[in-house]
Write a structure and sequence with these properties.
Elements: H1 6-19, E1 22-28, H2 47-54, E2 57-59, E3 62-63, H3 69-78, H4 101-107, E4 111-117, E5 145-149, E6 158-161, E7 164-167, H5 172-189, E8 194-199, H6 211-214, H7 222-247, E9 254-260, E10 270-272, E11 278-279, H8 299-302, E12 303-304, E13 306-309, E14 317-319, E15 323-324, H9 328-336, H10 353-357, E16 367-371, E17 374-379, E18 382-387, E19 394-395, E20 398-399, H11 401-406, E21 410-415, H12 431-452, H13 464-467
């Protein structure tokens, strides 16, 4: 057998790294499943997302791993359901013992960056978007470069650039894309592949948009005008990103994956009982025919837009295969040649590479959901949830926590193919299916319980620095 010299091995490694595709994961914030032109939204036009969907893999049954912001982001970064990672709810920090997608890319020779909303840390300071002292900043979790904010931003955003506060003039979505393209161009000049998280803060509250982006919505209520104006700007920035990759002549060597962190906002006005703040609803409906909104385990809370564009590698088509943000890490291991050992052995997703070319008849591994005691189990056509319905706690437009706490969780079973709007609860009429799915969900949730105690980490426990500063 011919023995390879060190020089030959180095050459082969260089060839592999140079041939590796750039990867950009793009995430909207609170964008509903129906808020695109390609789903015939009655008000919005999203020409750039429409073009991306027409040129890539449009996934009509794509799910966020959780119906909330922080929890969903943890599933992207780890391939694991949020509770396993220490991100139990909005604002939780991720355990630093987690194996992250960013670290896997960096170990594979990529340069890594995060741009935009982070929300996987707990340090919130009024005068700084994310100080370098924050133990859970992106640089602590596998990113070489970051221009980030803990939570929300809009026009003329204040970011933390690798720990230094910096205000940048402009519309935030456009600012983020400009920064992303500059980073990727520099990596391209250095012959290094790039992995980027591009996480918008649009169209999350508080709303703020340019006047010209709201012109088409002048006949709608103010909150809806501004909300939709944010999506217009975000869509325009998607066009800038796609054109920028073509201008750099790297579009065919760049996989761009677009989604939202959770479902859309409700149509009704909500008054926060804690502060009295009035939050007007968004009309027209952000989730279309789907039931529920953000925070809900119904389809409107977890089914989100999903598009993968990779020119020359993915033939344009529409898929109805159930897929999730949990599948991103396993998929990218295969796409980019990452080391499988860089993902925790206990994870919850599958590789979607087989879906790139054909439609598998069934998903072999169900999708589990678990946030604050609410549970869900999605197995192809059927979804089982153990849930307290948020809508039942609404009294004259006010969400009442006391009423919600008094509600008991109930089992619900839906056939999502026959009943995508989830109006017909089959829990009593399909006892065999319900019993099987309950048993599977119970076993899975027990596994998650073990993970929350640190069983998946080498130390066998969650270290104090995983969730808080050490004493």
């Amino acid at each position: 057998m011919r023995r390879l010299t060190i020089g030959t091995l180095a050459c082969l490694v260089t060839i592999r790294v140079l041939a590796a595709p750039n990867v950009i994961l793009v995430m909207a914030d609170d964008m509903g499943w129906a808020q695109t032109g390609y789903y015939d939204h009655p008000v919005l036009e999203t020409p750039n997302l429409d073009a991306m969907a027409a040129n890539g893999l449009r996934m009509d049954r794509f799910y966020s791993g959780a119906p909330q912001c922080s929890t969903a982001r943890a599933t992207v970064l780890t391939g694991r359901t949020n509770d396993r990672t220490g991100v139990l709810t909005v604002g939780s920090s991720i355990n630093k013992q987690e194996k992250t997608l960013s670290t896997a890319f960096r170990n594979a020779g990529y340069t890594t960056a995060h741009f935009g909303k982070w929300h996987l840390n707990t340090v919130n300071t009024p005068d700084h978007p994310m100080p370098l002292s924050d133990p859970h900043n992106p640089g602590e979790l596998g990113f070489d470069y970051w221009l980030s904010e803990t939570n929300q931003f809009n026009l003329d955003p204040l970011f933390s650039r690798n720990g230094t506060a910096e205000r940048i003039q402009g519309e935030s979505s456009e600012v983020l894309v400009d920064e992303t393209l500059a980073f990727i161009e520099q990596a391209h000049r250095q012959d290094k592949p790039a992995f980027v998280l591009l996480w918008y803060a649009s169209p999350h509250r508080p709303f703020e948009a340019l006047e010209e982006d709201m012109e088409a919505f002048e006949d709608w209520p103010e909150a809806s005008r501004v909300h939709h104006g944010e999506i217009v700007a975000m869509d325009r920035s998607i066009g800038t990103l796609r054109q920028g990759l073509r201008d750099l002549e790297i579009a065919e060597n760049t996989l761009v994956w677009f989604t939202s962190d959770n479902g859309g906002l409700p149509t009704f006005t909500v008054t926060r009982a804690s502060s009295g703040e009035v939050l007007p609803g968004v009309v027209p409906d952000s989730t279309g025919h789907l039931r529920g909104f953000k925070n809900s385990f119904y389809e409107g809370g977890i089914r989100v837009p999903g598009i993968i564009e990779w020119p020359g590698h993915l033939k344009p088509r529409i898929s109805n295969f159930p897929a999730s943000t949990l599948d991103m890490f396993p998929t990218l291991i295969e796409v980019a040649g990452l080391d499988p050992d860089d993902m925790n052995e206990v994870h919850d997703g599958i590789s979607l590479v087989p879906v790139f070319d054909a439609e598998p008849p069934r998903r072999g591994r169900p999708l589990g959901f678990r946030v604050q005691g609410q549970l869900g189990w999605l197995d192809n056509d059927y979804k089982l949830i153990y849930y307290r319905d948020y809508d039942k706690a609404m009294v004259d437009g006010v969400w009442d926590k006391e009423i919600f706490d008094s509600l008991t969780q109930e089992w619900e079973l839906y056939n999502l193919i026959d009943d995508p709007s989830e109006q017909d609860n089959l829990i009593e009429r399909q006892p065999d299916i319900a019993a099987r799915m309950k048993a599977e969900l119970t076993a899975w949730s027990a596994s998650v319980d073990r993970s929350t105690e640190g069983a998946d980490y080498p130390e066998g426990r969650v270290l104090p620095s995983g969730r808080a500063e050490p004493e």
